[in-house]
């Protein structure tokens, strides 16, 4: 039994401590995801908290089929979109991200890689950028991404493949004004 399954079973059996354990288990992943969609750490933290509040509120409607993580990411995606529509989360600026990320102590190398990834994908369309973020920043499987984006698995695969080819081509050409050796 996975840790997720164990926690979900404990919650269904009325264990209130399991709920806080579940939040702790996924908090850093969801926060990291929200940082991609927020201008500031505070906005991302608010979106993360709102995500967990919604997950708790709708927990009784969730039918566990081994995809709770995808369920959380879908809620986080919708929360970020809702907050952006309300002008709560402004457009992401790499300068703000670099400043914000510099204050995160643990996982510095991951954050540095996130900044490089952000620079590479900033000109992609929203739907393609989302697939790349979920795959390479969040480390989700293609099946999880398909569930979150509500796209067929084959569509996710083809879009990711096409996007990676595009990024590779731009990288070789020296995209973003950077000279690269091949």
Descriptive overview:
The chain is an all-alpha fold. It has a domain at 1-92: RNA polymerase sigma factor, region 2, helix turn helix motif (Rna Polymerase Sigma Factor, Chain: A, Orthogonal Bundle). Helix content is 71%, strand content 0%. It has nine helices and no strands. It has helices at residues 3-12, 16-37, 41-57, 68-85, 94-101, 108-121, 126-137, 142-149, 153-173. Helix 1 crosses helix 2 (16-37) and helix 6 packs antiparallel against helix 7. The longest helix is centred in the N-terminal third of the chain and has 22 residues, at 16-37. The chain is globular and about 55 Å long. Mean pLDDT is 79; it is low at 89-106 and 177-182.
Which characteristics define this entry?
Rna Polymerase Sigma Factor, Chain: A; 0% strand; mainly alpha; RNA_pol_sigma70_r2; DNA binding; single chain
In short:
This protein is mainly α and 182 residues long.
CATH fold topology of the domain at 1-92? Rna Polymerase Sigma Factor, Chain: A
Structural class: mainly alpha
CATH class of the domain at 1-92: Mainly Alpha
Share of residues in strands: under 5%
What gross morphology would you assign?
Answer: globular
Radius of gyration: 17 Å
Number of strands: 0
Q: Total helix count?
A: 9
Please summarize the sheet with the most strands.
none
CATH H-tier superfamily of the domain at 1-92? RNA polymerase sigma factor, region 2, helix turn helix motif
Mean pLDDT: 79
Judging by the overall fold, what is the CATH architecture of the domain at 1-92?
Answer: Orthogonal Bundle
Percent of residues in helices comes to: over 70%
Domain RNA polymerase sigma factor 70 region 4 type: 116-167
GO molecular function: DNA binding; sigma factor activity
Keywords: Sigma factor, Transcription, Transcription regulation
Protein name: RNA polymerase sigma factor
